Amino acid sequence: MMPPSRGLVVAPTYTLMRDGAQAVFFEICPPQLIATHNKAEQRTTLITGVEILWRSGDRPERLIGVNAGWCWGDEWSFVDEEAHLRVIARLRRTPGLFWATTTPNGLNWLYDRAVLDATGWKVVYSKTDANPHLPQEYIDSLRQQYTAEYAEQELEGRFIDFSGGVFKRDWFKRCQ
User: Fold this and answer.
1) d(CA 87, CA 9)
2) Distances (CA, A) of 116 to 24, 130, 152, 175
3) Strands lying side by side in the sheet with 97-101
4) Distance (Å, whole) CA 61 – CA 64
5) Of 160, 78, 85, 82, nearest in space to 125 by CA
6) What is the pLDDT of residues 47-89, one digit of tens each?
7) Other Cβ atoms within 10 Å of 41 Cβ, number
8) Are the C-beta atoms of 69 and 93 separated by less than 8 Å?
9) How many helices (DSSP H) and strands (DSSP E) are in the chain?
10) Whose CA is closest to 5, among 66, 68, 53?
11) With contact defined as beta carbons under 8 Å apart, do 8 and 53 qualify?
């Protein structure tokens, strides 16, 4: 539904972009909407005039020079803040939108910026069990294997501070 524009899809690494965001895009996008896809350039053009540049955030300096109208940052809490700053500086064209999806990753720069400061951000929390495409047995299996804190982050979608509060019994040996 995006108007004709150039946009970026950026993930923390090329592998995450290719195996995550890009793979899902090609699974759900009707093939008749794709005009061209240049794998070497990582560029997809839709029949609507939307051009998608698929990029990695692991080398933020490679994000400069693009004039874009929108960006989707996938797994955004796993990129460095520098990548975020480079991406938002690319949004020079209409409609000038940025959105991110992510699994929280502790209390990091994204937490500080989107939750504590929140200037220009709207945070929507989503639980894993709200995904209708995941089997309940899968979610139950994860919940059984995760600590309470890890489950709150990974399954409840909450930013959690792990510093100093999580110890495993096998880290310590009993001395006699």
Assistant:
1) 10
2) 31, 25, 19, 44
3) 34-38, 43-46, 51-56, 6-11, 70-74, 97-101
4) 6
5) 160
6) 999 999 999 999 999 999 999 999 999 999 999 999 999 999 9
7) 10
8) yes
9) 6, 6
10) 68
11) yes
Q: Residues with Cβ < 8 Å from 114, sequence gap 6 or more?
A: 121, 123
Contacts of 3 (CB under 8 A, 6+ apart): 48, 49, 50, 94, 95
Here the tokens at position 68 are 């874009």
The whole model's pTM is what? 0.86
For residue 166, is pLDDT > 60? no
Contacts of 123 (CB under 8 A, 6+ apart): 114, 115
Cβ atoms of 54 and 42 closer than 8 Å: yes
> Which amino acid does the sequence have at 35?
A
Burial degree of 54 (CB within 10 A; 0-12, 13-18, 19+): buried
Six token digits for residue 126 = 């989503």
- The answer to whether 41 and 54 have CB atoms below 8 angstroms apart is no
Single-letter amino acid, residue 167: F
